[in-house]
Write a structure and sequence with these properties.
This is DUF445 domain-containing protein. One of its GO terms (cellular component) is endomembrane system. Keywords: Membrane, Transmembrane, Transmembrane helix. InterPro entries: DUF445. Its main location: membrane. By secondary structure, the protein is mainly alpha-helical. Among the domains are: about 5-75 and about 380-415; about 170-300, no CATH class; about 420-445. About 90% of the residues lie in helices and about 0% in strands. It has 20 helices and no strands. The chain has helices spanning about 5-25, 30-60, 70-75, 75-90, 95-105, 105-125, 125-165, 165-185, 185-205, 205-220, 225-235, 240-255, 255-275, 280-315, 320-345, 345-365, 365-375, 380-390, 395-415, 420-445. It is elongated, with a radius of gyration of 48 Å. The chain starts with a helix and ends with a helix.
């Protein structure tokens, strides 16, 4: 049933019959039936139009005043908007309610799974892969040099700004020193350094033996007679380059020598750590780091940046490299996806998500949002929204006002009508009381 149409027909018929009955009352004055019908119709008119005008007075007049009256909604629009926003935030969209809704329905996990699924489908879709790779290569060809320059400029500017702030330089030095000290204090690292040094020494033995041999002969030649005797002894005992190299190799490989070498390494590392922690070294480093950063930045801009741009362009111009770009890109995407999934499923990730979701939700100002939207509505739009959202209930109130007015008008016709009207009121009250008790008992049992 369309309540609005019923209300319209009721209003029209009520007015029409009231006018007709009023005319008959003038011509047939004293007719009890006409008078009775007219009284009932007038009571219905009063009941209906009292509610009709009350509802209209909520919105009318929209501008100005009529007999000193202005519409309640237009007049108090700002207060209504603020009150509505506060009510919605407190009772409907309170941050705690939103957060509870999110966690009760596992929206975070569901969202992550959907994102992962979309990424997987994109990775395994040949059409999307081709499109993405084509876009990436095209973008790198067009904007690659510019991107490299932007990255370089940003890095250079960041380093220069850091160099201008002593506290940042000090932080960088402390971080570097601590990492270096930590590395050197690890016994395994020192042993590895020792092994690498021994490897280098063994590789350089021929050169070192040759240098020692030449140095020894040069030294003996400068010692006249004693030197000639020394050279003769050297030749007799085959004390040549090969012999020197063999002697050096035995020295390096000897276990006792190795232990002594590691002890020497420990002493050297201890001395290096002491030097790194000294005030003089710190002052020297912090004083020079600005110059180092500036010099390295200038060198990189003049040499590394042009070379990098040239290599990038050459690499992109070769179609054989495009397949490699595709593999590396989607490998990186897959790696990021897995790392992200691992992080989200970890306790740390869950805590991070929870903290940030709660922070985000609490930062949503529903009151201000609703207030802003309501104030942006035209008064006609606001009236339509309220009437539409009441689902025709205001129209029902108008209609029932007319019906109840007519029922009350029966009492004005004759006092005996008070009996059925009173009975109707009693029945209504008993039905209301029974319904109230029906829902109060379960609430008390809880």
């Amino acid at each position: 049933m369309d309540v609005a149409k019923l209300d319209t027909w009721y209003r029209r018929l009520l007015v029409l019959f009231s006018i007709i009955c009023g005319g008959f009352q003038i011509y047939y004055e004293g007719n009890i039936w006409i008078n009775a019908i007219f009284v009932v119709l007038m009571a219905g008119m009063v009941g209906y139009y009292t509610n009709f005008l009350a509802i209209k007075m909520l919105f009318q007049p929209k501008h100005g005043k009529v007999l000193g009256w202005s519409g309640l909604v237009p007049k108090n629009k700002s207060k209504i908007a603020k009150s509505l926003g506060e009510s919605i935030q407190s009772n409907l969209l309170h941050p705690d309610i939103i957060i509870a809704y999110i966690y009760e329905r596992n929206l975070v996990e569901t969202g992550i799974q959907k994102i992962v699924k979309e990424i997987d489908e994109a990775i395994h879709n040949d059409e999307i892969r081709t499109l993405l790779v084509t876009k990436i290569i095209s973008m790198l060809k067009e904007r690659g040099p510019e991107i490299l320059e932007v990255i370089f400029d940003f890095s250079e500017e960041t380093m220069k700004k850091m160099a201008e702030r002593p506290e940042e330089v000090q932080k960088l030095w402390e971080y570097t020193r601590n990492r270096l000290t930590y590395y050197l204090t690890e016994e395994t690292n020192r042993e590895e350094l020792g092994k690498q040094l021994r490897v280098i020494l063994l590789e350089e033995m021929p050169k070192l033996a040759n240098l020692l041999n030449e140095g020894l002969e040069e030294y003996l030649k400068t010692r006249s007679t004693l030197g000639k005797i020394g050279i003769g002894v050297k030749k007799i005992f085959s004390f040549n380059e090969d012999a020197i190299r063999e002697l050096l190799e035995r020295f390096v490989k000897d276990p006792e020598t190795s232990d002594q070498f590691m002890k020497m390494m420990d002493d050297m590392m201890a001395g290096l750590q002491e030097r790194l922690n000294s005030k003089e070294t710190q002052e020297f480093i912090t004083g020079k780091i600005s110059n180092w950063l500036e010099a390295s930045g200038d060198y990189a801009r003049q040499n590394l940046l042009p070379s990098g741009i040239e290599r990038l362009q050459s690499y992109l111009d070769d179609p054989n490299n495009w397949e490699e770009i595709e593999k590396n890109f989607f490998r990186a995407v897959d790696w990021v996806k897995k790392r992200l999934l691992e992080f989200m499923n970890s306790e740390e990730g869950k805590a991070y998500l929870k903290t940030n979701i709660e922070k985000f939700v609490h930062n949503i100002n529903v009151t201000a949002l609703v207030e802003e939207r309501v104030m942006a509505l035209d008064t006609d739009d606001l009236e339509k929204m309220i009437l539409d959202n009441t689902g025709g209930n205001l129209v029902v109130i108008q209609f029932l006002g007319g019906i109840l007015g007519m029922i009350a008008g029966l009492i004005q016709v004759h006092i005996y009508f008070a009996v059925p009207v009173g009975a109707l009121v009693l029945i209504t009250y008993l039905a209301h009381y029974r319904n109230q008790k029906k829902f109060e008992e379960p609430a008390q049992n809880k």
